[in-house]
Amino acid sequence: MNIKTALVTGSTSGIGHATALKLAQDGARVVVSGRDARRGGEVVEQIRAGGGTAHFIAADLSDAQSAAELAARATEFAESAGGSLDILVNNAAIGAGGPTAGTEESTFDAVLSTNLKAPFFLVASLAPAMAARGSGAIVNVSTLAAARALPGLAVYGASKAALDLLTKSWAAEFGPAGVRVNSVSPGPTRTPGSEAGLGEGLRQLAEQAPLGFVADPEDIAAVIAFLVSDEARFVTGTVLDVDGGRTVV
Ligand SMILES: NC(=O)c1ccc[n+]([C@@H]2O[C@H](COP(=O)([O-])OP(=O)(O)OC[C@H]3O[C@@H](n4cnc5c(N)ncnc54)[C@H](OP(=O)(O)O)[C@@H]3O)[C@@H](O)[C@H]2O)c1
What we know:
The chain has 249 residues and is of the alpha/beta class. The chain has helices spanning 14-25, 37-49, 64-80, 105-133, 154-174, 192-198, 201-206, 217-228; strands spanning 5-8, 29-34, 53-58, 85-90, 136-141, 179-186, 239-242.
C-alpha cells in the first residue's frame, strides 16, 4: 500500500497539532513543522508512541525562501522514506489584531508574510510535483474572520480572505492535473494561540453561533482529514465553514 506523506505547517500547537495526530492515525507519514523544536519534538514523539511515523522540520515561515526550503526538506524526507509529498496543510498563521489606525507596518507585513505569502510559495514549490504525479490534496486553514467583519481582525481577516481566493484559483489551476485544493474556515477553537489572544472573548464569540460552544482542535482536524482523504475526491475549490453555524446568523 502506498503510504502518503503530509506536511502540516504550524503543527507544534493547536489545530495543526491535532491535524498532525489525526493524519498519522489515518495512516499518513507526517512532517511536523513550526519554529519551536521542543514542541515539535513532543508532537513527533506522541505520533510515534501511537505507532505512526513523523519527522520534525523547523521553519520560520516568513518569506518565499523559507517556504521553498521547507518544501524541499519535506519532499526529501518523503522521498527518503520511499514516498512523495502528497498532502499539504497550510495551517501556520499569525493572529495579530488591533485597530486599523494603531497597526504598525511591521505587523501588517508579518501577518501577510506568514498567512499568505508562505502558503503561496509552499504551493508553488509542491503543487507542480503533485500535478506531475496526477494526485495531491491541499487544505488552507482560513477563519471565520475572512468572511465577516470582526472588530480588530481586519489585517488577519484580509490575509485569510486572500488565501480563500487562492484556494479557488489553485483548484482551477491544478484540478485538471488531479490536485484538489480546499479551505477549512474554523470558528472559535480552544488552542494555545486563541486562548492567549482572545481569552474570555473566545467563549463570547462562540455564543453568537447557533451551536454556541467553543470547538476543540480535533473538531477542525477531523474536517481537514476528510478533505485530504480520497473520500473527498469530488470536492475542490470550496471554503468549508466549521464554525458552529456562525456564518448563517
Ligand atoms: N483557534 C481559533 O479559534 C481559530 C479560529 C479560526 C482560524 N484559526 C486558524 O487556525 C490555524 C491554527 O491556529 P491555532 O489557534 O491552532 O494557533 P496556535 O495555537 O497559535 O498555533 C499556531 C501555529 O502556527 C505556527 N506558526 C506561527 N507563526 C509561524 C511562523 N512564522 N513560522 C512557522 N510557524 C508559525 C506555530 O508554531 P511555532 O510556535 O512552533 O512557531 C504554531 O504551531 C491558523 O491558521 C488560524 O488562523 C484558528
